[in-house]
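WARN no homologs supplied; continuing
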Amino acid sequence: MIELRLGDLTTEEVDAVVLPANPALLPGGGASGAIHRAAGPEVAEACARLGGCPTGDAVATTAGRLPARYVIHAVGPVWQGGGRGEPELLASAHRRVIELASELGCASVALPAISCGIYGYPAELAAPVGLRAVAAALAGWPGVGLVRFVFLDEVVRRAFTDAADRLGLPVT
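OK structure emitted
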């Protein structure tokens, strides 16, 4: 099941919360900074031990003080116009989130619109890429039963809802 809703990732009661990460896994601004602040220093300390993550991939750490069990740090691409492999890297980051969640035994995952904040990926272009990748990954990793996209902004939520309609994906 895929859900699209407005909300706050830091309060989601799911097995894993996805943090839109930078390759160095350093606390940043936007959703990344909010999740790091809410989770506490344990998450940043765990990230420091990992030593980074390439764009298009994801890694997991403890969730610290969050209600989730894990934080999955997904590194999406910086938008550079779309001709530098951004769609493929964004799809890869979404697939890796689902694969990693399944490997960790997570039945539920909450994630933001990866790369649509500070990284500048237009939501109307990111939405079909992310939704398609998640739907395909769910077919291959059936242990994850719920993927909840959580947005702070109605405009971004609408971009994902419209994309799901165009793709014929059942979302709630």
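The chain has one domain: 2-167.
OK
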